[in-house]
Structure prediction request, 158 residues.
Amino acid sequence: MSATQPTSFFLADDTATTALGAVLAKVLQVGDTVLLNGPIGAGKTHLARAFIQAKLGRLEDVPSPTFTLVQTYNADGLEVWHADLYRLSHPDEVLELGLDSAFETAICFVEWPDRLGDLVPDTALIITLSQQENGRKATFSGGREGLLSQIQVSHGDG
Ligand SMILES: Nc1ncnc2c1ncn2[C@@H]1O[C@H](COP(=O)(O)OP(=O)(O)O)[C@@H](O)[C@H]1O
Ligand SMILES: [Mg+2]
Prediction:
């Protein structure tokens, strides 16, 4: 078994995070799940929002699912699920929300994915955001075969 090497990018400001969301919108497919790790304020919601807006092709209002746990979006018949599991009390609630089946039928972004327990999809793409200088470091691992190599972020372009 060859483990995929984690890859990191520096995201200098929130515009760079938005650009990463647009890159993900080009490469993610139904069945892809993105686990967003990082502390409060790391930019998890910002990244999911940028993905959703790029995928929908419009500046749709994308509220944080902090209290609703899940928000769903429809882009020409393709479903996007945005979950924030911070307030989840038990992994069984993942089943009640229908998130486990959405992993198969939609593109899912999950904040606080540690709450998933053993319901984490095998091919989930893991993105960890952390503070670096005034920006963020994004570290990637996992994902379905070949996905990581499709995620290229250009550095320092305007
Ligand atoms: N690369 C970046 N550099 C600096 N600030 C960023 C970057 N990406 C996002 N931000 C900012 O960080 C904050 C993150 O908020 P949010 O996305 O709600 O965090 P989380 O969902 O992880 O709690 C937002 O104000 C956003 O503008
Ligand atoms: Mg958030």
Observations:
- Helices lie at 14-27, 44-56, 92-97, 99-105, 147-150.
- The two ends are 40 Å apart (CA to CA).
- The pocket of magnesium ion (ligand 2) is lined by residues 44-45, 64, 84, 111 (CB under 6 Å).
- Strands lie at 7-11, 33-37, 70-75, 78-84, 107-111, 125-132, 135-142.
